[in-house]
Predict the structure of acylphosphatase.
Amino acid sequence: MPNQSQEQIRAHAFISGQVQGVGYRFSTVSEAHRWGVTGWVRNLSDGRVEAVFEGNKSGVEEMINWCHQGPSAAVVKDVAVEYEEPEGLSGFETRR
């Protein structure tokens, strides 16, 4: 029986509030590397930040928890998360 903490999951997050122009994407990349999570992050035209996190369950959950606060200059109002099937992403990047 596999260890639950090693289960691979994918979370698709939409973060709203004052999250653009405050280093949110840059900080997300740093946090993803810290937790060993793959995926991507980008700004949306409506002012939100969109991110996808893939990895072991504990790492992805740490990223979602971090999204609720973000970098010190951010003011996060909401984090909406949808769980999807992992696609086997490699690395973590900022998208446009």
